[in-house]
Structures are given as structure tokens and as C-alpha cells.
Amino acid sequence: MVAQLISYIALGAPATRRPASGDEPFLRPEIGFTPNWYRQALGIDFGDRWHTDPAYRRDCLIAMGREVRRRFGSAMIGGVKNPDEPEDLLTGAFGSCVVASIYGVPTLYAADNWPSSEHQYLTAGEVDLLEPPDLDRNPFFQGIMEQVEWIAGERGRVEGYLNWQGVLNNSYRLRGEELFVDMALEPARANHLFECVRTTMAEGALRLYGRQRETGVEVRHFTMSNCLVNMVSPEQYRDLLLPHDRWLADQFDLVGIHNCARCADPYLEHYAEVSNVGYIDMGIDSDLRKAKGMFSEARRAIMYTPMDLAGKTLEGLRSDLERIACRYGPCDVVFADIEAGVPDERVLSAFSLCESLGERR
Length: 361
Known about the structure:
- The chain has 361 residues and is α/β, with parallel strands linked by helices.
- The protein has one domain (5-359): Alpha-Beta Barrel (TIM Barrel), CATH 3.20.20.
- The chain is built from 15 helices and ten strands.
- The strands form three sheets. Strands 3-10-9-8-7-6 form a six-stranded parallel sheet. The protein has a two-stranded antiparallel sheet with strand order 1-2.
- Helix 7 (167-175) crosses helix 9 (187-214) and helix 8 crosses helix 9 (187-214).
- The longest helix has 28 residues, at 187-214.
């Protein structure tokens, strides 16, 4: 059996992946809250300081961990073992904007949300002349590595992950909607942008992993986030994006494919051509039995929408989880982006239902 990855939502961070231990529950819940959830509870400001000052982020994480422990007891949320000594001070920094920021796209910070990239897009001519940035001279990337050095001095070990996103996601942040025009009418231009982006993703991750290794933290995996894949046809993914996902997979020992909460059916046969897949997620409307058969050795996950968690009846939630367990388990159920106002009891009910349904297997 190949190694596996599981979903991981650090406190205040978008979902990413981490290595599985091998003894995960049959139906494993992974819970994550929006920055606004923490802001409403604790008044934390998730603006630029939260992302650029690791000492401030550490202090916030202590408060956040204590709040999660107070409200949810021993339920494992955010990977918190000891709220007063957070191990992971890296995950969540700069949200999903890391690669766009390396390419110089300004970042928009918010007190109550993850950062976003300004809609400042490359022209066709700029794309044609684009080259991957020199990370040794890139101010943004070097700023990240300065944080890594601070964390190494503070904790000894640099635990955690940056969110490198995916080729399509990052390219869209650089080119905007014109990217889809390029894919249809100027595929060579789109391919050039994809090549630049994938190079930066791999180089940045491998440099970070090298420094983490020096602190005793071994990171060998990578996640391709395909949140926008449903905006391209399966044929476009196959011809223009799959080669880059396969190239990225070849740079790492193990990869995860994040398909967001959308139906993965049109892309499953192409995802199956990616090597070293240790994790794949998708929405509940996907053909779960087919996906389980195609990715039997990977840890699978369902991205359960925060709207369904908040809005469905308890019986509706139970019915969904029973279907997931029957057709797709063993797997993770990712309850991400839970907003302020969702009762704690509903979150605890999700935990309880996953535990009880898993025990029946």
C-alpha cells in the first residue's frame, strides 16, 4: 500500500494536506473555521501582521488554540496538541497567495478574512516574455525564508506547510479571465505561463523543504489544488494541465489532488494518470464508488460544504455521512470554512456522527 496524506486545517489557515499516521478513523472529520470565526470570538486581526510577523502569529495561535479547546474539548481541531505551545507556526501564512505574490501581484489583506490577490493581470505580451523569478533575489520569497529562520530559532523545528495552490489557480491569479481565452485560442501562450508557474511552485517548495529538513522536519509531499478545474473542459485539462500536474508529481515522493467541493467525475480518468497520488478530495455529488475504485490506495476525502453543515437538518447530515461511509470510506470528511454563527453543537454533532458511523464498519 502506498503512503497516504490526510486533510489538515491549521488554525486560521485554508485546508492543506499532511502525512497520514496509518491509524486514522474510518470516517475522519477535519474541522476548520474562517478567520472571521476567530475574529468574532477573540477579536484577532488577520491583516498583514498576522502573515508577516511570526511572533504575532504565534501569540494569536495560542489564543486560538485555547478557544478551540475551551469550546470543543478534546476534539482534534487545527492539529492542536498543547494550545500553549503551538508546534506549527508556518501553515496559513499568506493563505493561497504565495505564488502570485512571488510574481509581484499585490496582496490584499483583511482583518476578518484570508488574503487575496489584487486583480492586476499580465498582458499577453508580458506572459510571452515571462520567466520564473529568481527566488534567491525575490523579496517576497526571501521574506518567507526570514520567517522560517525565526521559527527555527524559536521552536528548533520548522513544522508546517505553505499553500502552493495549483497550476491553474496560480495562473488565473496572474492572467485573469484572459487565461481561458489563451487556452482556447493561444494554447502555446497558456502553456508557457503554466510552465513558469509550475517551476516556481516546485522550486519554492523544495527550497523550503530543504531548510525544514535541516531542522529535523522531513516534508516529501506536495498538493495540486485544482479549485478552478470545473471552468475548463476535461479535454482542456487533459491536453494543457495534466502534463504539468504529472511533472509536479514527478518532483515529489507523494502528492495530493485537491478538487474542492465540486464534482470530480469528468476529471477522474485523467487524475488517475498522475503518479504517487496519496490523497484526493472531491464534492459529495461525485461518483463516490467509482472514485473509491480508481483511487483505492489513496486516502480519499469529501469536501463537505459549510452551507450544508450549517443548513441541513441533523437527519440530512446523518444521511449524507452514511452515504459517504458506505460508498467512499475509509475517508476524511472535511468541514472547512465554518463561519461565525454556526452553533458549536452542530460542529460537535458532526464529530459524533463520524465517530458512530465509523464504529459500525
